[in-house]
C-alpha cells in the first residue's frame, strides 16, 4: 500500500531490468570520509535509496574501487586535486558537484562540496537522478543555490491548530516536547533537505508571545537539534509586544532602552540554547498585530531594533510587508508599497523585507507586487503561499509552481527590459547581500502530509524554486511525477498536462480575467462575491470587483486609484491601457463595460461566462484523464485523487453557477446559448 507518507522520496524498485542491472553495476558501493551527523544522514539516505530503488545494500568501502561513489569534502586527500580550487570557491557553503571521475585510475562517481551539508544535498540530487532514471554515463553536475534563505513558514499555533491549514493539525507536538521527539520530525527534515529548504519558521505569524518563554524555547531547541544535521535552521515568529506580555514592561517602543535590553537578553537566552538559531519573522501593524507604529515609530525602527539584538549571533529578521488598513475609500492594493518604499535604505543589513507575491493576498492570480524592484537598497524576499487558502484548500488539484513561475518571470523593468522578479530577489540589482524565498506551508499531521496527494508537489516546487528561481515548472513537474508515482511515459505525459494546466483551470472557475477576493467570507472557501470578504465592516460587497450596471472591475489606472503608477513606466503603461493590459489581469486594473469587445471578438460578459464554463469543463477533463491511469499506480492514491477530483468538480460547478448568476444581476445579459446545458 502507498499512503503517500514517503512523498517524493518514494524509493520503489526500478522495474526495467536493463536499467536496474546497469545502475547496480555502475554503483556497487560507496567510500566516505568523515563521520559527522550530516554525513551519517547522507549515508543513511544512500542506503535507504539503494535498498529501495536497486534492491541492494551498497558496500561500504575502505578504499576507492571501480564503480564506487565517493563522498568527500574539499580538503580530503583522496581527492588529489580532482576539482579546481576556483570551482570549490563558486560552490559556497551549500553547493555541490557530482562528477564521473577517475581517482587512482578507478572510475567512480564523486560527490563533493565545501561542507557536509553540500554533500548531503549532492546525495539527494544523485538519488533523484536514479529515481528519475536520468543518470548519464558522464556526470558533470554543479548545483549552487541562488537564494540564501529557503524557508517554510508554518502558520502553526501553540494549541496544535494551523491557521489556513488543511492537512490536519500541527506536526509539532508541543505537549510532548522536549522529552519525546517524534520520529516524523526526521522525515520532515529529510524531505526539506532533499529540495534544499534550509529554514523553518515553526509558528504562526499571528504569534503567541508564549513561544519565547523558557519552556517553549526548550522545546524549540529539541526540534533544532533534530533538524540540524539536515541543514535546516529554526526560526520563530515573534510578537512585537513580547516585552510587555512576557517581560512585564510598560511599553514595547523599539527605541526604549528597557525594551532594547529585553530583546538583547532574550536573544542571548535563545542562542545559548540554539547556537545556530536563524532569527525572527515578524508580522507587525497588520491585521491587528502590534508593531512599532503603535509607538509612533516606523517599520524600520522596529525591524532594526530586533536586528540589532540578533546581529551578534548572525541572526536575521524577516519583516513582513503585508500591511493594509480598512479605509473604504482607499485602494488596498496601494498600501504595502506606500508604507515600505519610503523606508528603502533604512533597514539594517540583517533585515529582509518579506513581500507576498502580489499586492493583495495570495489570490489565484495577481500581478506581481510593485515592491519588487522598488527598494534597491533593501534585501527583499519572496513570500508565496503553498497552503491553498484561496485555491480550494487541499481538495482541489492545483499545481502552484506555474503561479510561482509566472510571478518570478514577470518583468519589473527596474533596470530596463529583462529585470525579472527572479533577478530582483536573487539580489542582482541591489547592494544588499541577503536573499530568500518563503512558502507558507501546507503541511499538517495527516498521514500524507499535505492532504491532497498532488499538494505535495507544491511543497516540492517551492523548494526547487527557492534553490533556483529560474527553474521551469515543466521540469519540476516531470521530476516530481517520476519520483512520486512512475517513470512510465504513458503516465507522465497526461499527468504533467493536468498539473501544468490546473492553476489556469482554477482561475477560470474562480477568478477569471483579473477578478480577485470574491471568496466566501472569512473561510475563503467557495464563492462569495456578494459578501464583504475581507472582514472590513465598512467595505461594500462590491469593494473588490466593483460590478455595476455598466461593467465590472477595479479602475486602478492613472484616472482611477492610480495603482499602475507603482510600477516602472513600461509596466505602468502596459497595465494602464485597456488595449495593452493583459486580458488575464484586465479587471484588476480596469473597470470594463459588459459590452467591451475582447480580443476573441466576444463581449466581456460572454467571455467571462466562457471562462467559468471552461473551468468546469477542464476539471471534467482532468477527471477523464485520471480515470484512464488506474493501471499505473496503487489503488490507494488512485482512488484518493479520483474522489478529490469529484469534489473539485462539484465545487467548480458551484463557483461557476454562483458567480455567473450573481454577476448577471448586474450585467442583465443572457448566458451565451452554446454554454447553457442541462446539468
Ligand atoms: C491572510 C490570511 C490570514 C493571515 C494573513 C497573513 O489574510 O487570511 O489568515 O494571517 O494572510 O498573511 O498574515
UniProtKB/TrEMBL annotation:
Domain Glycosyl hydrolase family 67 C-terminal, first and last residues per copy: 450-673
Statement: the UniProt record of this protein carries the keyword Hydrolase: yes
One of the record's GO molecular function terms: hydrolase activity
Organism field: Flavobacterium rhizophilum
The enzyme's E.C. designation: 3.2.1.131
Catalytic class of the enzyme: hydrolase
Family named by the database record: Belongs to the glycosyl hydrolase 67 family.
Domain spans labelled Glycosyl hydrolase family 67 catalytic: 130-449
The protein's name: Xylan alpha-1,2-glucuronidase
Catalytic reaction list: Hydrolysis of (1->2)-alpha-D-(4-O-methyl)glucuronosyl links in the main chain of hardwood xylans
Annotated Alpha glucuronidase N-terminal domain residues: 7-126
Keywords carried by this UniProt record: Carbohydrate metabolism, Glycosidase, Hydrolase, Polysaccharide degradation, Xylan degradation
Subunit composition and interactions: Homodimer.
Amino acid at each position: 500500500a502507498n499512503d503517500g507518507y514517503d512523498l517524493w522520496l518514494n524509493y520503489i524498485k526500478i522495474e526495467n531490468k536493463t536499467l536496474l542491472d546497469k545502475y547496480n553495476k555502475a554503483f556497487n558501493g560507496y567510500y566516505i570520509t568523515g563521520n559527522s551527523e550530516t554525513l551519517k544522514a547522507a549515508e543513511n539516505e544512500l542506503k535507504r535509496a539503494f535498498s529501495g530503488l536497486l534492491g541492494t545494500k551498497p558496500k561500504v568501502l575502505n578504499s576507492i574501487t571501480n564503480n564506487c561513489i565517493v563522498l568527500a569534502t574539499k580538503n580530503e586527500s583522496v581527492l588529489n586535486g580532482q576539482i579546481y580550487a576556483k570551482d570549490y570557491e563558486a560552490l559556497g557553503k551549500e553547493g555541490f558537484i557530482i562528477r564521473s571521475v577517475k581517482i587512482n585510475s578507478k572510475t567512480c562517481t564523486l560527490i563533493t562540496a565545501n561542507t557536509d551539508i553540500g554533500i548531503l544535498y549532492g546525495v539527494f540530487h544523485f538519488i533523484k537522478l536514479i529515481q528519475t532514471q536520468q543518470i548519464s554515463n558522464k556526470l558533470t553536475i554543479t548545483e549552487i543555490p541562488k537564494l540564501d534563505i529557503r524557508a517554510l513558514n508554518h502558520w502553526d499555533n501553540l494549541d496544535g491548530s494551523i491557521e489556513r491549514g488543511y492537512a490536519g493539525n500541527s506536526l509539532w507536538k508541543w505537549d510532548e516536547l522536549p522529552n519525546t521527539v517524534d520520529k516524523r520530525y526526521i522525515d520532515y527534515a529529510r524531505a526539506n533537505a532533499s529540495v534544499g529548504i534550509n529554514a523553518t519558521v515553526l509558528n504562526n505569524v499571528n504569534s503567541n508571545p508564549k513561544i519565547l518563554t523558557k519552556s517553549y524555547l526548550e522545546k524549540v531547541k529539541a526540534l533544532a537539534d533534530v533538524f540540524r544535521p539536515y541543514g535546516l535552521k529554526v526560526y520563530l515568529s515573534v510578537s512585537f509586544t513580547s516585552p510587555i506580555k512576557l517581560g512585564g514592561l510598560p511599553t514595547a517602543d523599539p527605541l526604549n532602552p528597557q525594551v532594547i535590553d529585553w530583546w538583547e537578553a532574550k536573544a542571548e537566552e535563545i542562542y545559548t540554547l540554539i547556537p545556530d538559531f536563524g532569527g525572527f519573522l515578524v508580522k507587525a501593524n497588520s491585521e491587528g498585530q502590534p508593531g512599532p507604529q503603535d509607538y509612533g515609530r516606523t517599520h524600520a525602527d522596529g525591524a532594526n531594533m530586533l536586528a540589532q539584538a540578533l546581529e551578534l549571533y548572525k541572526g536575521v529578521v524577516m519583516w513582513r510587508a503585508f500591511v493594509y488598513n480598512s479605509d473604504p475609500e482607499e485602494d488596498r492594493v496601494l498600501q504595502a508599497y506606500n508604507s515600505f518604499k519610503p523606508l528603502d535604505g533604512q533597514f539594517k543589513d540583517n533585515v529582509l523585507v518579506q513581500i507576498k507575491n502580489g499586492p493583495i493576498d495570495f489570490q489565484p492570480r495577481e500581478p506581481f507586487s510593485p515592491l519588487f524592484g522598488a527598494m534597491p537598497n533593501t534585501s527583499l524576499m519572496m513570500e508565496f503561499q503553498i497552503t491553498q487558502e484561496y485555491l480550494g484548500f487541499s481538495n482541489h488539484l492545483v499545481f502552484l509552481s506555474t503561479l510561482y513561475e509566472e510571478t518570478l518571470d514577470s518583468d519589473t523593468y527596474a533596470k530596463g527590459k529583462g529585470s525579472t522578479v527572479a533577478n530582483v530577489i536573487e539580489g542582482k540589482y541591489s547592494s544588499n547581500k541577503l536573499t530568500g524565498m518563503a512558502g507558507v506551508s501546507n503541511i499538517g499531521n495527516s498521514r500524507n502530509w499535505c492532504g491532497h496527494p498532488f499538494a505535495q508537489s507544491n511543497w516540492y516546487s517551492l523548494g526547487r524554486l527557492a534553490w533556483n528561481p529560474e527553474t521551469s515548472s515543466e521540469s519540476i513537474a516531470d521530476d516530481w511525477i517520476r519520483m512520486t508515482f512512475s517513470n512510465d511515459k504513458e503516465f507522465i505525459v497526461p499527468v504533467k498536462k493536468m498539473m501544468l494546466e490546473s492553476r489556469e483551470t482554477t482561475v477560470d472557475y474562480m477568478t477569471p480575467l483579473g477578478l480577485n477576493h470574491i471568496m466566501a467570507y472569512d473561510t475563503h472557501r467557495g464563492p462569495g462575491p456578494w459578501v464583504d470578504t475581507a472582514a472590513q465592516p465598512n467595505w461594500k460587497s462590491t469593494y473588490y470587483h466593483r460590478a455595476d450596471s455598466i461593467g465590472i472591475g477595479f479602475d486602478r489606472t492613472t484616472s482611477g486609484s492610480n495603482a499602475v503608477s507603482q510600477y516602472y513606466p513600461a509596466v505602468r503603461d502596459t497595465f494602464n491601457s485597456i488595449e495593452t493590459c493583459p486580458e488575464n489581469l484586465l479587471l484588476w486594473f480596469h473597470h470594463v463595460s459588459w459590452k467591451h469587445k475582447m480580443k476573441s471578438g466576444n463581449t466581456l460578459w460572454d467571455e467571462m461566462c466562457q471562462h467559468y464554463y471552461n473551468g468546469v469543463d477542464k476539471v471534467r477533463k482532468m477527471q477523464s484523464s485520471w480515470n484512464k491511469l488506474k493501471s499505473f499506480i496503487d489503488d490507494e492514491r488512485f482512488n484518493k485523487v479520483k474522489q478529490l477530483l469529484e469534489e473539485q468538480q462539484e465545487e467548480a460547478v458551484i463557483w461557476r453557477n454562483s458567480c455567473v448568476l450573481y454577476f448577471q444581476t448586474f450585467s442583465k445579459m443572457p448566458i451565451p446559448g452554446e454554454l447553457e446545458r442541462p446539468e
